[in-house]
Design brief:
single chain
Protein backbone atom coordinates (compact mmCIF):
# COMPACT_ATOMS: atom_id res chain seq x y z
CA UNK A 1 0.00 0.00 0.00
CA UNK A 2 1.49 3.39 -0.95
CA UNK A 3 2.65 5.56 1.92
CA UNK A 4 0.74 8.55 0.47
CA UNK A 5 -2.57 6.86 1.29
CA UNK A 6 -3.45 6.91 4.97
CA UNK A 7 -6.16 4.27 5.01
CA UNK A 8 -7.37 2.84 8.28
CA UNK A 9 -9.83 0.20 9.42
CA UNK A 10 -12.51 -0.74 6.94
CA UNK A 11 -11.10 1.42 4.13
CA UNK A 12 -7.71 -0.29 4.40
CA UNK A 13 -9.41 -3.69 4.39
CA UNK A 14 -11.49 -2.74 1.34
CA UNK A 15 -8.37 -1.51 -0.46
CA UNK A 16 -6.58 -4.76 0.38
CA UNK A 17 -9.53 -6.83 -0.90
CA UNK A 18 -9.59 -4.79 -4.12
CA UNK A 19 -5.88 -5.44 -4.66
CA UNK A 20 -6.42 -9.15 -4.04
CA UNK A 21 -9.31 -9.32 -6.53
CA UNK A 22 -7.15 -7.62 -9.17
CA UNK A 23 -4.41 -10.23 -8.65
CA UNK A 24 -6.92 -13.08 -8.82
CA UNK A 25 -8.45 -11.57 -11.96
CA UNK A 26 -5.00 -11.49 -13.61
CA UNK A 27 -4.56 -15.19 -12.82
CA UNK A 28 -8.05 -15.90 -14.20
CA UNK A 29 -7.03 -14.14 -17.42
CA UNK A 30 -3.98 -16.44 -17.67
CA UNK A 31 -6.28 -19.48 -17.43
CA UNK A 32 -8.66 -18.02 -20.04
CA UNK A 33 -5.73 -17.59 -22.46
CA UNK A 34 -4.23 -21.03 -21.72
CA UNK A 35 -4.74 -23.52 -24.57
CA UNK A 36 -5.01 -26.37 -22.08
CA UNK A 37 -8.33 -25.06 -20.72
CA UNK A 38 -9.90 -23.82 -24.00
CA UNK A 39 -12.34 -26.73 -24.22
CA UNK A 40 -13.69 -26.18 -20.68
CA UNK A 41 -17.40 -25.28 -20.67
CA UNK A 42 -18.29 -21.87 -19.17
CA UNK A 43 -14.68 -21.29 -18.13
CA UNK A 44 -15.13 -17.56 -17.41
CA UNK A 45 -18.14 -18.23 -15.17
CA UNK A 46 -16.34 -21.05 -13.34
CA UNK A 47 -13.24 -18.90 -12.79
CA UNK A 48 -15.38 -16.08 -11.39
CA UNK A 49 -16.98 -18.55 -8.94
CA UNK A 50 -13.57 -19.94 -7.97
CA UNK A 51 -12.28 -16.39 -7.40
CA UNK A 52 -15.18 -15.53 -5.08
CA UNK A 53 -14.89 -18.81 -3.17
CA UNK A 54 -11.11 -18.40 -2.81
CA UNK A 55 -11.33 -14.78 -1.66
CA UNK A 56 -13.90 -15.76 0.97
CA UNK A 57 -11.47 -18.14 2.68
CA UNK A 58 -8.21 -16.23 2.21
CA UNK A 59 -8.15 -15.04 5.81
CA UNK A 60 -4.80 -13.22 5.77
CA UNK A 61 -5.41 -11.55 2.36
CA UNK A 62 -1.97 -12.64 1.19
CA UNK A 63 -3.32 -14.56 -1.78
CA UNK A 64 -3.00 -17.93 -0.07
CA UNK A 65 -5.34 -20.15 1.93
CA UNK A 66 -3.44 -21.31 4.98
CA UNK A 67 -4.25 -24.12 7.40
CA UNK A 68 -6.69 -22.01 9.43
CA UNK A 69 -8.45 -20.71 6.30
CA UNK A 70 -8.89 -24.29 5.08
CA UNK A 71 -10.10 -25.35 8.54
CA UNK A 72 -12.69 -22.54 8.50
CA UNK A 73 -13.74 -23.48 4.96
CA UNK A 74 -14.28 -27.13 5.85
CA UNK A 75 -16.19 -26.24 9.05
CA UNK A 76 -18.42 -23.83 7.15
CA UNK A 77 -19.13 -26.56 4.60
CA UNK A 78 -20.10 -28.90 7.45
CA UNK A 79 -17.11 -31.23 7.05
CA UNK A 80 -14.73 -30.43 9.94
CA UNK A 81 -11.28 -31.99 9.62
CA UNK A 82 -8.33 -32.55 11.95
CA UNK A 83 -5.09 -30.64 11.42
CA UNK A 84 -3.46 -33.80 10.04
CA UNK A 85 -6.27 -34.25 7.51
CA UNK A 86 -6.02 -30.57 6.53
CA UNK A 87 -2.26 -30.85 6.00
CA UNK A 88 -2.86 -33.93 3.86
CA UNK A 89 -5.44 -32.00 1.80
CA UNK A 90 -3.00 -29.12 1.28
CA UNK A 91 -0.28 -31.56 0.18
CA UNK A 92 -2.76 -33.17 -2.24
CA UNK A 93 -3.71 -29.83 -3.81
CA UNK A 94 -0.20 -28.35 -3.99
CA UNK A 95 1.41 -31.53 -5.24
CA UNK A 96 3.61 -31.96 -2.19
CA UNK A 97 5.32 -28.56 -2.12
CA UNK A 98 6.84 -27.57 1.22
CA UNK A 99 4.45 -24.66 1.90
CA UNK A 100 1.43 -25.14 4.13
CA UNK A 101 -0.73 -22.91 1.97
CA UNK A 102 -2.82 -23.22 -1.18
CA UNK A 103 -2.25 -20.43 -3.69
CA UNK A 104 -4.89 -19.45 -6.21
CA UNK A 105 -3.18 -21.13 -9.18
CA UNK A 106 -3.07 -24.47 -7.35
CA UNK A 107 -6.70 -24.00 -6.31
CA UNK A 108 -7.88 -23.37 -9.89
CA UNK A 109 -5.77 -26.24 -11.27
CA UNK A 110 -7.34 -28.54 -8.70
CA UNK A 111 -10.88 -27.40 -9.51
CA UNK A 112 -10.38 -27.64 -13.29
CA UNK A 113 -8.25 -30.78 -13.16
CA UNK A 114 -9.36 -34.34 -13.70
CA UNK A 115 -8.07 -35.62 -10.33
CA UNK A 116 -10.60 -35.96 -7.54
CA UNK A 117 -9.04 -34.17 -4.59
CA UNK A 118 -11.02 -34.30 -1.35
CA UNK A 119 -11.30 -30.51 -1.24
CA UNK A 120 -12.61 -30.41 -4.82
CA UNK A 121 -15.26 -33.03 -4.06
CA UNK A 122 -16.42 -31.17 -0.95
CA UNK A 123 -16.63 -27.84 -2.80
CA UNK A 124 -18.50 -29.36 -5.74
CA UNK A 125 -20.90 -31.10 -3.38
CA UNK A 126 -21.54 -27.82 -1.59
CA UNK A 127 -22.22 -26.04 -4.89
CA UNK A 128 -24.72 -28.73 -5.90
CA UNK A 129 -26.38 -28.57 -2.48
CA UNK A 130 -26.64 -24.78 -2.69
CA UNK A 131 -27.61 -24.76 -6.37
CA UNK A 132 -30.90 -23.62 -7.91
CA UNK A 133 -33.02 -24.98 -5.07
CA UNK A 134 -31.12 -22.87 -2.54
CA UNK A 135 -31.60 -19.79 -4.72
CA UNK A 136 -35.38 -20.19 -4.42
CA UNK A 137 -35.26 -19.90 -0.64
CA UNK A 138 -36.30 -16.50 0.55
CA UNK A 139 -34.27 -14.62 3.11
CA UNK A 140 -35.79 -13.66 6.38
CA UNK A 141 -38.47 -15.25 8.53
CA UNK A 142 -40.97 -17.70 7.07
CA UNK A 143 -44.41 -16.35 6.16
CA UNK A 144 -47.02 -16.30 8.90
CA UNK A 145 -49.43 -19.21 8.84
CA UNK A 146 -52.71 -19.66 10.56
CA UNK A 147 -54.13 -22.86 12.03
CA UNK A 148 -56.34 -23.59 9.02
CA UNK A 149 -53.37 -23.81 6.65
CA UNK A 150 -51.69 -26.55 8.68
CA UNK A 151 -52.13 -30.18 7.57
Amino acid sequence: MPASKNLQGGKAFGHLKDQQKVKLEEINQEFLEDQKYRDEDDLAMKLEGFKNKYAEFDLNDQGEIDLMGLKRMMEKLGVPKTHLELKKMIMEVTGGSSSNTIDYRDFVKMMLGKRSAVLKLVLLFEDKANGPAAACKSDGPPPKRDISSLP
